[in-house]
Each structure stands twice: as structure tokens, then as C-alpha cells.
Specification:
- With 209 residues, the protein is of the alpha+beta class.
- The protein folds into 2 domains: 1-106, Phosphoribosyl-AMP cyclohydrolase (Ubiquitin-like (UB roll)), CATH 3.10.20; 117-206, Orthogonal Bundle (Helix Hairpins).
- Helix content is 41%, strand content 18%.
- The chain has helices at residues 38-47, 120-134, 140-146, 149-169, 172-193, 197-206; strands at residues 18-24, 30-36, 51-54, 59-62, 71-78, 85-91.
- Strands 2-1-6-5 form a 4-stranded mixed β-sheet, covered by helices on one side.
- Helix 4 packs antiparallel against helix 5.
- The protein is elongated, with a radius of gyration of 21 Å.
């Protein structure tokens, strides 16, 4: 294995490009596909932010330089054939120029219109944050937050107790439902406290052995 930041003998195409798949480090979601040449790869490794080669503009571009939606690189991998890169990043803001979190937000076949299992919790927190900012009428989240911090804390305590009771009674489906209820209300509590769910994920990652 080459030393860190040492570019291996990668296989670039006849235009000097190699595809780079960009993946969200926290959720595992595929954010975008772009192309790098040797210079943009070098800049990515040295700066810790993604650089690509624009095939349409025929120039280097630093993702986020215009929008502010930078990608901070956690890891760069290459595949078994040395002809494709996987770049895991911490994404600031949406990855897609349309404002969507991922460029792959449209479905050609299959799917049910819901988030993938691995991203449900992240999307739930994003929705809670949106409700907190906009406080739309008719929203349960908004009404709960409007009741104040004590109401949110009480609801988390209530849901935690209901989960424990469900487990003690041996009701498997009820355990699933109560755990989901608790997860949602924890997201509301985190939003109220000004704590991002990604900070909790990072704390869990740091504890990994």
C-alpha cells in the first residue's frame, strides 16, 4: 500500500481523467460523480477539499468555491483496477447545484420515494430542523417546540419509559414502534439544544474500538 498522499499508478483515460465517486462520510450516501486529473487529485490531497476537472469548461474547479458548499475530504480510496476513486467527505450544504443533498435525487426504476434506510435518521433530523426554523401551522414538531423546552424534555422521558415498558412486556412490534418514537423525539431535543445529529454520530465514531 502506498504511503499517505502518495498517488499510486492510477489508470487515467485518454483524456487524462479518472472518475471520482463522492460519498457522505456520515451517512454513506453517494453524493455525486465527477472527474479528476492528476492535478486536481494532487490539490485534493494537499488541501483536504475536493478539486475536479470540468469537462465542459475545460478547467479545474474547487467544489464549493462559488456556492460555499465545500466538501472536506476524510478519505480517498481507489478500486481494484486502479481506474476509479472513492472520495468520502464531510459535505457542507447540498452537494447538487439544484439544491438537493445529492445529485442522485431522481429515480429511474424502483424505489418507493422514501429515503434509503441508512439515511432515514439524517433526513429526519433535517426535517425537524426545517420545522424548527419555519414553525409551519399544523406541524406536530412545531407545536411541540412552541410548548417550550420542558415539554420537549418531558416527551423524551415519556417515550423512553414507554420503550422500556414495551421491552419488558416482550411486545416486539411495540418495541420497534416505541424506539422509533423515541428516536424522533430525541431529534427534536437535539434541535432544541442546538446540537446537530452529525455531532452525535461523530461522538459514536470516536468511541469505536
Amino acid at each position: 500500500m502506498p504511503e499517505e498522499n502518495t498517488i499510486p499508478d492510477l489508470t487515467f483515460d485518454d483524456r487524462g481523467l479518472i472518475p471520482a465517486i463522492v460519498q457522505d462520510r456520515l451517512t454513506g450516501e453517494v453524493l455525486m460523480l465527477a472527474y479528476m486529473n492528476s492535478e486536481s487529485l494532487r490539490r485534493t490531497l494537499e488541501s483536504g477539499r475536493t478539486w475536479f476537472w470540468s469537462r465542459s469548461r475545460q478547467e479545474l474547479w474547487n467544489k464549493g468555491a462559488t456556492s460555499g458548499h465545500f466538501q472536506f475530504v476524510s478519505e480517498v480510496r481507489y478500486d481494484c483496477d486502479l481506474d476509479c476513486l472513492l472520495v468520502t467527505v464531510e459535505q457542507r450544504g447540498p452537494a447538487c447545484h439544484t439544491g438537493e443533498h445529492t445529485c442522485f435525487h431522481r429515480t429511474l426504476h424502483g424505489g418507493d420515494g422514501k429515503p434509503a434506510t441508512f439515511e432515514v435518521l439524517t433526513r429526519l433530523f433535517e426535517l425537524v430542523e426545517k420545522r424548527r426554523r419555519l414553525m409551519p401551522p399544523g406541524s406536530y414538531t412545531a407545536s411541540l417546540l412552541a410548548e417550550g423546552p420542558e415539554a420537549v424534555r418531558a416527551k423524551v422521558s415519556e417515550e423512553a419509559a414507554e420503550l422500556v415498558d414495551a421491552e419488558a412486556s416482550g411486545e416486539r412490534e411495540e418495541v420497534i414502534q416505541e424506539a422509533a418514537d423515541l428516536g424522533y423525539h430525541v431529534c427534536v431535543l437535539l434541535s432544541q439544544a442546538g446540537v446537530n445529529l452529525t455531532e452525535v454520530f461523530e461522538e459514536l465514531r470516536q468511541r469505536w474500538r
